[in-house]
Write a structure and sequence with these properties.
- Keywords: Membrane, Transmembrane, Transmembrane helix.
- GO terms for molecular function: cyclic-guanylate-specific phosphodiesterase activity.
- This is EAL domain-containing protein.
- This protein has about 775 residues and is of the alpha+beta class.
- β22, α17 and β23 form a beta-alpha-beta unit.
- The protein starts with a helix and ends in a 5-residue tail after the last helix.
- The protein binds ligand C2E and calcium ion (2 copies).
């Protein structure tokens, strides 16, 4: 902005400056030319004056000479001269002298002696001072300027004939201020005229002045130095004068006399002062007008430019309100309108970019960034609690690998819509390729589980297209605010961790557990230690007895693994089974469990306790094609009837390489081992689907059993499962029996087995044997 105004201002100032410079140069030129013209004019005038002065003096001479000649015709005078009658001569001289304006008259004899003098009685007989004038007088006009006794006189000498020359009359006309004034009256003689007499070499003194009051006269009363022969410029007093010095003819015996003429340049310039004043005023006016113009333009430009700068700043800060149109038709108006249009365009583009940056292109749902911001926002607003569901479609990576992105995108879009439909007011986002996030503000863990179940139901039906039907196989991880974490990023990460755990569990959903968080440092060390646990004998099996409901006998037990950690104490399988799977240790663990359980079963057998023992297999085990032969060899080597060993698998164990898993199961079953589906009810598969699997037993998941006493819905579900299971020829076991009510209900609907804390806790082999022996005593029943 500054540069724009700076530019305009500079331009305007340049023009004003130019105006001033041109005016000043013009002024200087005009002054120079005028000055020179005046000087020349002055010089001309002075030269003319000098000539006029000479001419006037000549006139004076001629007039006086004529007068004297008339006087010489006077007979009485001639007679008086001849008779030497001095009195008559003096009287005549007096009379005539007065008439011609002379201040002194003399009669001089032809021999040069003074015969009579009107000013000095005693001069008779003295010699006349200026004899050279006498000789000249006989053949031409003889008049010269002479200094006599401190005064200057115009001395005119006229011979007197009778008819022979008899003498000469000398007329003294004093050249004083009066005479000069008189001459000024008669002619154009200047006021600035001074007559100077040389008193000593280079010392001059004024004896007559045209006007004593002028600086010229005052400045030249006494002069040291000589006068230039040409007119020249001199500073006299406070003023500039052109001075012309004209030497006057003087008799030999007289001091030199000079007449000085002055031409005052100041006076000559005076008429031009007005002009200069008017011109200066004009210049000042122009300057003022120019500066006003500059100021107005600058203001006119700077105001809207400043305003535009403010608008630009606002846009920079993300305020896209469209600025009002400027009612101007000039470039600035156009610029303002362009900025308005641009603002709208930038706003649209920014909205689009923002939408792209915060939304997933496939589902149109907010992305991970957006949901993270949303969660942070609701935390900042102070929600008391909240739950974060991370819904993973666990087959998506496989789907992309096998059928590509096109179909996968359609599947994910469909999943997104299903989730949206059941999410209600909750925030839904797509966090990664295969993960959705649902944020339920103001909900606790119970609501979270309900929501998770709703989501799982919504995603249960496979995605179908003509010729394609794909199971989404969802798994949901749940992180609770503020229990698990207080920050959005952590909640997201924890929910994801939980989702991994859920993918491996039978329920298909799981809460975050710090203990199994793969990113926790202690888990890393646990994973390392797990390798050693087996060789160091830190693993044990506990056995949880199961009650046969028809006979009320403990006829079987499930082997559950425990890790006796030297520092951390007993670690439950939920913590380390997942780790073992992740680190590739699960097969060793499974084989160890099988061997230990088979050995134990054999031992009980030897003690007379015929207990069927169940061992849990993990999903990874079903990928092991050697497993059926291994187990068969194991049972055979311990001489354990195959029917005494149950192998528990979850439905989710069938995910992945379904065909090979199915083959392993078939082989196991063919060899006579008992196969149980663990955690039945929380998976997605239907009973009809299960029917394709070689299965002997269903274990109803704890979540349906725990609340049997109080929850009629659960009772309906459990009864249906029992009935359907029996209908398909399966044995049915209920897990998680925690009270008598549940046990009684299960007995009433003819469920086969009950397992749970109410029946027995997982126990060491010895403790279990004791329990069974105690229970089988007749008095106990
Ligand atoms: P599961 O197979 O469903 O085992 C039953 C779990 O429920 C056991 O937990 C048991 O202690 C617990 N339980 C039994 N009755 C009740 C009850 O009345 N109320 C409640 N609240 N819980 C009850 P545990 O021992 O912590 O085992 C957890 C899971 O770890 C097992 O679930 C199983 O999936 C897995 N697991 C345990 N041992 C092994 C093993 O040797 N190999 C493999 N692959 N998995 C194992
Ligand atoms: Ca089990
Ligand atoms: Ca179970």
């Amino acid at each position: 902005m500054r540069t724009v105004i700076g530019f305009r201002l500079r331009l305007a100032l340049f023009f004003v400056g130019m105006l001033v410079v041109v005016q000043l140069i013009t002024g200087a030129l005009v002054y120079g030319v005028t000055h020179r013209a005046l000087v020349m004019d002055g010089e001309r005038q002075l030269a003319a004056n000098a000539k006029a002065f000479d001419a006037q003096m000549e006139d004076v001479s001629a007039r006086i000479a004529g007068n004297v000649r008339v006087m010489a015709l006077d007979f009485a005078l001639r007679q008086a001269i001849a008779q030497g009658d001095r009195a008559t001569v003096l009287s005549v001289l007096h009379n005539h002298g007065r008439r011609v304006g002379a201040s002194r008259m003399q009669l001089v004899n032809l021999d040069g002696t003074i015969a009579a003098d009107t000013a000095d009685e005693h001069a008779s007989g003295q010699t006349f001072s200026f004899v050279e004038l006498m000789q000249r007088a006989f053949y031409q006009q003889a008049a010269e300027m002479a200094a006599v006794q401190g005064h200057v006189y115009w001395i005119i000498v006229v011979p007197i004939y009778a008819p022979q020359p008899v003498g000469l009359v000398v007329v003294y006309v004093q050249v004083d201020d009066q005479l000069l004034a008189h001459m000024q009256e008669l002619s154009t003689l200047r006021r600035d005229v001074v007559l100077e007499v040389q008193r000593a070499p280079s010392q001059w003194e004024a004896v007559a002045q045209g006007d004593r009051s002028t600086p010229f006269a005052l400045g030249l009363e006494r002069v040291t130095g000589d006068f230039p022969a040409q007119p020249s410029l001199r500073r006299i007093g406070q003023s500039d004068y052109i001075v012309l010095a004209q030497p006057l003819q003087h008799p030999f015996n007289s001091a030199p006399v000079v007449v000085l003429f002055g031409y005052s340049l100041d006076d000559a310039l005076r008429p031009y002062h007005k002009l200069a004043l008017a011109w200066s005023a004009l210049l000042a006016l122009g300057l003022a007008a120019g500066l006003l113009g500059v100021w107005v333009i600058a203001r006119n430009v700077s105001r809207p430019v400043e305003w535009l700068a403010t608008v630009a700043k606002r846009i920079e800060q993300g305020d896209y309100r469209i600025p009002p149109r400027l009612p101007r038709r000039d470039e600035i108006g156009a610029l303002a309108n362009a900025i308005g249009t641009m603002t709208a365009a930038v706003q649209q583009r920014e909205e689009r970019i923002f939408h792209q940056a915060t939304h997933d292109a496939v589902t149109g749902l907010p992305n991970r960034l957006a949901i993270e911001a949303e969660i942070t926002l609701s935390i900042d607003r102070g929600v008391a609690r909240g739950s974060l569901l991370m819904i993973g479609l666990t087959r998506v990576p496989d789907i992309i690998k096998t059928v590509g992105h096109g179909l996968c995108d359609r599947l994910v879009r469909d999943a997104g819509e299903r989730i949206r439909r059941v999410a209600g007011a909750a925030e839904v986002a797509r966090a990664t390729d295969s993960n959705f996030v649902v944020w339920l503000a103001d909900t606790g863990s119970d609501d979270a589980v309900q929501a998770a179940t709703r989501m799982l139901d919504a995603l249960a039906a496979p995605y179908t297209e003509p010729d394609v039907s794909i199971d989404m196989v969802p798994a949901i991880g749940i992180a609770i605010y503020p229990e698990h974490a207080t920050m959005a990023v952590a909640l997201l990460r924890y929910a994801e961790t939980a989702q991994f755990a859920a993918a491996g569990s039978s329920k298909a959903w799981a809460f975050y557990q710090a203990a199994i968080d793969p990113h926790r440092p202690e888990r890393l060390s646990l994973m390392g230690e797990l390798r050693e646990a087996l060789t160091r004998g830190q693993l044990e099996l506990r056995y949880q007895a199961r009650l046969a409901l028809s006979s009320r006998r403990l006829d079987s037990a499930e082997a559950l693994m425990r890790w006796q950690h030297p520092l951390r104490g007993t670690i439950l399988p939920d913590v380390f089974i997942g780790m073992a799977e992740d680190t590739g240790n699960i097969q060793r663990l499974t084989r160890w469990a099988l061997e230990t359980a088979v050995t134990q079963a054999r031992q009980w057998c030897s003690q007379g306790l015929m207990l069927r023992v169940a061992v849990n297999l993990s999903a990874h085990d079903l990928g092991d094609a050697d497993l059926p032969r291994y187990i068969a060899d194991l049972a055979d080597s311990h001489r354990l009837p195959h029917g005494q060993l149950t192998l528990e698998i979850t439905e989710r164990a069938m995910i992945g390489e379904f065909d090979s898993a199915l083959r392993v199961l078939h082989q196991l079953r063919e060899q006579g081992f008992h196969i149980a589906i663990d955690d039945f009810g929380v998976g997605q598969s239907s009973l009809s689907y299960l029917h394709k699997l070689p299965v002997d037993e269903l274990k109803i998941d704890q979540s349906f059993v725990k609340h049997l006493t109080h929850d009629p819905n659960d009772r309906v579900i459990v009864r249906s499962i029992v009935e359907l299971g029996h209908g398909l020829g399966y044995e049915v076991t209920a897990e998680g029996v925690e009270d008598e009510g549940a046990l009684d209900y299960l007995a009433s609907i003819h469920c086969d087995h009950a397992q749970g804390f109410f029946v027995a806790r997982p126990l060491s082999p010895g403790a279990l044997a004791d329990l069974i022996i105690t229970q089988s005593k007749p008095d106990h029943a």
